[in-house]
């Protein structure tokens, strides 16, 4: 709960809020309003077209803010009569429809791979088919990636995927060495992972920390389910499948690590920001995260990057890991010329080869990390060009991520039907498993499956 530079930090932190009745009311309100109401504050005046975008980095990351502002300056110089307004306003599924109905949504919004089906269904994203098809590299997208932005019924395109990630194991190499483990050989199976966690645990260090709040418990449960070869939903998204023996095995693994092995943190109900802090401060040896967290390790915690490594997800028959990412969608209430300006900036800032090289050089000079491992959005020559640029400006110990980069695991996307509500439902399951030694995995999954099946049934009606 994928996504990969500062823009990557947005999707991998996954600070999801629990869904509430407010979300349902917001959806209803937007459907009643339809596409009515005035456009956003962006628009055309005095011959200048102004477009807003939600990806201005926070002021706590001045290096990323500098890179963003320089990119905006370059774009406005190379695209006369345009103006870009950046806002630090990360996508939030619980407020998106409220903001859209109130004309407070930016013209370009970086969202998650899981969101397009609902946004398309609710007419809450603009059709950009003509713009996307006019971009020379749109046809270079991996078909599995471009399908995320496409309505399977009409073939219309509603977004531009910009970052992708695969979850893996981040670990502290110093703690591995201290425990007698080879830091170049992270665990590859559930059995090894459990054994490593026990060996890494001491009076001051927990072998592993797991997330279970802000929808991240459900997100990680899905990832573990994929490593076991299980499924979360039926192919058409109408049936719950996580109430299975493989789902039970995931919960049993976590329960035994927590209470039998005592190799997990005593503190629970953690989110990813908290587990990253524990990793960065040498209090936890292993966590599950995406590659882009390197930048936060350095900028927020001043961690020595050579002390950390990344390996692929340990497997239990699935030979797979969860992949996700970020996708830009565009405000359907914005004027067409504003959408075009926003679209042009998204393409320019993310995929123009000269801008990419310039930004990578600036990032390295500004102390941002360059060279973190990532999965592939594109195929062919364009992806090769991207890889070469990343290697040219790499300023991180890429040798510490070799096992992750060379992994041949299948990358499985997040379920796309009511994904965030599914994650929220499973949060409570993971929380209970990690806080109650007497919890029954089968009973918990049965109850969660019945609850979430009602959500799927209601969304289909």
Report on this structure.
It contains 19 helices and eleven strands. It is α/β, with parallel strands linked by helices. The protein has two domains: 6-164 and 325-404, Periplasmic binding protein-like II (D-Maltodextrin-Binding Protein, domain 2, 3-Layer(aba) Sandwich); 168-289 and 418-460, 3-Layer(aba) Sandwich (D-Maltodextrin-Binding Protein, domain 2). Helix 3 (62-78) links the parallel strand 2 (48-53) and strand 3. The two termini are 27 Å apart. 51% of the residues are buried. This is Extracellular solute-binding protein. It comes from Ktedonosporobacter rubrisoli. InterPro entries: Bact_solute-bd_prot1 (IPR050490), SBP (IPR006059).
Instruction: Supply the CATH superfamily name of the largest domain.
Output: Periplasmic binding protein-like II
Protein structure class:
alpha/beta
Helix fraction?
40-55%
Q: How many domain units?
A: 2
The gross shape turns out to be: globular
The CATH C-level class name of the largest domain? Alpha Beta
Along the chain, the helix and strand elements come as HHEEHEHEHHHEEHHEHHHEHEEHHHHEHH
- Radius of gyration (Å): 22 Å
InterPro entries: Bact_solute-bd_prot1, SBP
Protein name: Extracellular solute-binding protein
Pfam families: SBP_bac_1
Quick take:
By secondary structure, the protein is of the alpha/beta class. It is built from 19 helices and eleven strands. It has two domains: 6-164 and 325-404, Periplasmic binding protein-like II (D-Maltodextrin-Binding Protein, domain 2), CATH 3.40.190; 168-289 and 418-460, 3-Layer(aba) Sandwich (D-Maltodextrin-Binding Protein, domain 2), CATH 3.40.190.
């Amino acid at each position: 709960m994928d996504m990969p530079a500062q823009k990557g930090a947005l999707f991998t932190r996954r600070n999801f809020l629990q869904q509430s009745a407010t979300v349902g009311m917001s959806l209803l309100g937007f459907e009643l309003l339809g596409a009515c109401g005035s456009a956003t504050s962006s628009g055309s005046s005095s011959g200048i077209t102004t477009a807003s975008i939600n990806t201005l980095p926070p002021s706590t990351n001045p290096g990323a803010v500098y890179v963003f502002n320089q990119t905006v300056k370059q774009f406005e110089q190379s695209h006369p009569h345009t103006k870009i307004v950046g806002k630090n306003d990360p996508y939030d599924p619980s407020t998106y429809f409220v903001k859209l109905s109130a004309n407070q949504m930016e013209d370009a919004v970086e969202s998650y791979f899981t969101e397009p089906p609902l946004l398309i269904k609710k007419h809450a994203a603009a059709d950009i088919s003509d713009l996307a098809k006019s971009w020379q590299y749109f046809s270079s997208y991996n078909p599995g990636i471009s399908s995320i932005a496409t309505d399977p019924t009409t073939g219309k395109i509603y977004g531009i995927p910009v970052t992708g990630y695969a979850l893996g194991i981040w670990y502290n190499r110093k703690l591995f060495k201290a425990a007698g483990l080879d830091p170049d050989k992270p665990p590859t199976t559930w059995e090894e992972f459990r054994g490593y966690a026990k060996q890494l645990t001491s009076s001051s260090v927990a072998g592993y920390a797991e997330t279970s709040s802000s929808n991240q418990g459900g997100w990680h449960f899905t990832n573990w389910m994929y490593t076991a070869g299980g499924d979360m939903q039926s192919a058409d998204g109408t049936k719950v499948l996580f109430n299975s023996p493989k789902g039970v095995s995931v919960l049993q693994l976590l329960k035994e690590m927590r209470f039998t092995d005592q190799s997990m943190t005593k503190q629970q109900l953690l989110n990813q920001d908290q587990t990253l802090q524990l990793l960065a401060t040498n209090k936890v040896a292993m966590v599950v995260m995406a590659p882009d967290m390197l930048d936060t390790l350095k900028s927020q915690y001043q961690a020595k990057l050579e002390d950390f490594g990344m390996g692929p997800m340990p497997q239990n028959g699935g030979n797979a890991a969860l992949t996700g990412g970020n996708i830009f969608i565009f405000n359907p209430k914005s004027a067409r010329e504003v959408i075009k300006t926003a679209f042009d900036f998204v393409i320019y800032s993310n995929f123009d080869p000269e801008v990419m090289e310039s930004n990578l050089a600036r990032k390295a000079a500004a102390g941002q990390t360059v060279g973190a491992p990532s999965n592939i959005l594109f195929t062919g020559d364009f992806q090769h060009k991207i890889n070469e640029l990343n290697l040219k400006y790499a300023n991180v110990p890429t040798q510490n991520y070799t096992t992750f980069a060379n992994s041949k695991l299948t990358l499985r996307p997040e379920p796309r039907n009511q994904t965030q509500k599914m994650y929220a439902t499973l949060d409570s399951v993971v929380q209970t498993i990690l806080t109650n030694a007497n919890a029954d995995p089968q009973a918990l999954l049965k109850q969660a499956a019945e609850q979430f099946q009602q959500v799927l049934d209601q969304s289909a009606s």
